[in-house]
Amino acid sequence: MSLLAVRDVSKRFGGVKALAGVSFAVDKGDLLGIIGPNGAGKTTLLNCISGLARPDAGDILWEEASISRVAPYRIARMGIGRTFQIVRPFPSMTVRENTAMGALFGRPRGRLQPVAAMREADEVLDLVGLAEKRHYPVLRLTVPDRKRLEVARALAMRPRLLLLDEVMAGLNQVEVEQALAMVRRVRDSGVTIVLIEHVMKVIVGVCNRVLVLNFGKTLVEGPPAEVLNDPRVIEAYLGERYARGQKTNGEHQPTANA
Ligand SMILES: Nc1ncnc2c1ncn2[C@@H]1O[C@H](COP(=O)(O)OP(=O)(O)O)[C@@H](O)[C@H]1O
Ligand SMILES: [Mg+2]
What we know:
Layout: E1 4-13, E2 16-26, E3 31-35, H1 42-50, E4 57-62, E5 65-66, H2 72-78, E6 80-82, H3 95-105, H4 114-128, H5 143-155, E7 161-165, H6 173-188, E8 192-196, H7 200-206, E9 209-214, E10 217-222, H8 224-227, H9 231-243
Parallel strand pairs: 3-8, 3-9, 6-7, 7-8
Antiparallel strand pairs: 1-2, 1-4, 4-5, 9-10
């Protein structure tokens, strides 16, 4: 049984077909990477899974039950957590308080008491590497630390599936390495992960499978080494990226690590 199954999902915004019949499954323990050009439909896909967008056609199953018409807060309580491409914490609160919000309001059964929520927050802050900055106001955090906080907030809801939307965008080489270590720790704690990422080093470094989206459809799916050397992927996505020149965020030719 798959943990999550996306079946032939389509989503249109006016004249734009953001998703045009996407299917894939996520098994427990998977670390699935989703890559593809800007506008390929990656974020829309996460929005459909987390209930923020409703598919026009197709279905999404969580442990065999359809969730494509379930409200986002209920999907979160069923065990699907996510981060957002645009980070939006509560700026005047501390790192710890921000994280505790997830523990307080996102739990499946009733609310935790504030003291218990703070304890939970400390645990996940340790996991993401923010323990020492837990009393900082969020305003003082650097960009990479804000992304860690976003992961911590999602983890505080104790998801079984975590959806990460470009949490490593704009990070330098060292920060990418640290973020990679964080993703591994989260995976090793037993959380299944789907991550959208443009940094190829991340894809080859942690993912056991990769899905390439292009124009709202699956172009290729398979193990990273295979997918990143696939001529169709190089033509539709990687070729264009390398032609624009290397970015500063630690990516490199996929063949170097494949
Ligand atoms: N809420 C929305 N309203 C209108 N168009 C949208 C909306 N969300 C996404 N789109 C469009 O759908 C397409 C896919 O977007 P998106 O899922 O954000 O792609 P990606 O995350 O792969 O860059 C784009 O053409 C985008 O402009
Ligand atoms: Mg996106």
